[in-house]
Amino acid sequence: MSDASAPAVRTGPHIIAELGLQTVRKGDAVAGRGEVQPHACVPGTDAMRTSVLATWADVVTGYAAGHAVQPRIPLTLDLEVQVIEPPRAGRVIVSEGTIVKLGRTVVVTETPFVDEETGKLLAVSFVTFVPSPNPEHVFEGGTFPEQALWDGRLSQPLAARAGARVIEPGIVEMARSTEGLNATGAIQGGLVALAAEEAASSLSDEPVVLHAFQMRYLRQFAIGPARAVADGTPDFATVRLTDLGSGKLGAIATARATRLARI
User: Fold this and answer.
1) Per-residue pLDDT tens for 35-81?
2) Is-contact 21 94, C-beta < 8 A?
3) Domain limits, the chain
4) Bond preceding residue 225 cis, omega within 30 of 0
5) What's 46's DSSP letter?
6) Could you tell me the maximum CA-CA distance found in the chain, to the nearest angstrom?
7) What's 50-82 look like in SS3?
8) Homologous superfamily of 2-259 in CATH?
């Protein structure tokens, strides 16, 4: 399982903040807005990485879930992104995370991703959360912390910034960095998704975008590094992610890919 949000209190640089997502609470929903940065795109193309959409979905819906289950911290159980058309560099994308079901043990959320200028639906995401069973995982003061607007930008390609290294086709490792942790000190769930995306994408000799991507979080990556191993073809892969520090399986992903033209 992965904590839904970036750290409640940021005392230094954080990779997730550099993705440039801005959020604002709208009643029970949370709106998000961000520009697609070139460094957040699939290398060699102007198409936004699906793992960035996954991260934005996790943050926006995680804020909505956090308000719903406070004082307990919500953990991401599963996350799905379906891409209709990849957002392109320079475009501004808006979304709104809403709660579809609020139960005693699970919170199911949804967010669409829309081109702000054209109003065109580009992708949709569904994320399921569970309140952390750890009694120590509660928000300071008992309430979900209001987040300041993020205005950071990536200064280098996202995979390099996050330290995701392709060991060989289908195998990627990512260290546990202090600039990429969640509120409980584990690797942030969006960065785990990035490792899975990199492993699946590395099976192809050409740039690909994941048009159907699903993550199932089993346990947190508390030690690291995270190791993602993709099994399949350039078109479809199953990815298993292990925390090498504990030797335990931490997440499973499936990815369907579409080839992209280089620019």
Assistant:
1) 999 999 999 999 999 999 999 999 999 888 877 666 777 889 999 99
2) no
3) 2-259
4) yes
5) S
6) 50
7) HHHHHHHHHHHHHHHHHHHHCCECEEEEEEEEE
8) Acyl-CoA thioesterase, double hotdog domain (2.40.160.210)
